[in-house]
Amino acid sequence: MRFAVIGDSFTEGVGDPLPDGSVRGWADVVAAGLAASSPDPVWYANFAVRGRLLEPIATDQLDAALALNPPPDVVTFNGGGNDMLRSGWDSATIAAYVGRVATRTAEAGVRLVVLSGPDPTERLPRGRVFAERASDLMVIVDELTAAHAHVVYVDNYRDAEMRRAAYWSPDRLHLSPLGHERVAARVLTALGVPTPLPQAASEDPPPPGLIDEAAYAGRYLVPWFARRLAGRSSGDRRSAKFPDWTLVGEPAHR
Fold this sequence. Notes:
By secondary structure, the chain is α/β, with parallel strands linked by helices. The protein contains eight helices and six strands, in the order βααβαβααβαβααβ.
């Protein structure tokens, strides 16, 4: 099996750090799960880069994935979260890019798994704006999955459990390791490897106070706004972590 993924920080794995400073993330977990359950080799490519807008995901990343030799059997796709955080949101433009991914994968005979990201709006500044744009995107994705037989939809946005704090990293925008594992379980199940959904064991912490909110703003919001004003992205000078086929572990024995 050849498994390729495209997207932004959600698919790169931000929020799920490894000891060497790199990140793992749900897509890496899915690749390992596929390899562990298969008697045959599993090859994996990950083109996702944090900060990427939907346009380069649906064009540059997708085209690179479909140009792999041999071509992928499955491509997963998520994007649009960074577009929601910027001005100039346009539903028609977003729909066109999402449609391009569906059309190109259909033409290539590649199975497409579309993921929605979980809902972070309860803890984010300007959460209402994010929620309105996310609602637009959910309509687009719902229509896409109904119109294309080769598309599998993994809906994380409507998972109420994942709105709890345990599934989110301290920046409130990216998933925690547990959050990535829960997404991975849902994707593996959709790909025919039934996997139980991890569940948060502890109660949610109390809402943050003023001091906590001020510390959060200084650590995460101020740098984010500084990058926006400078026209920079968290993904500048970063490249895909697996831009070519990488053999995943050892295949399971029959």
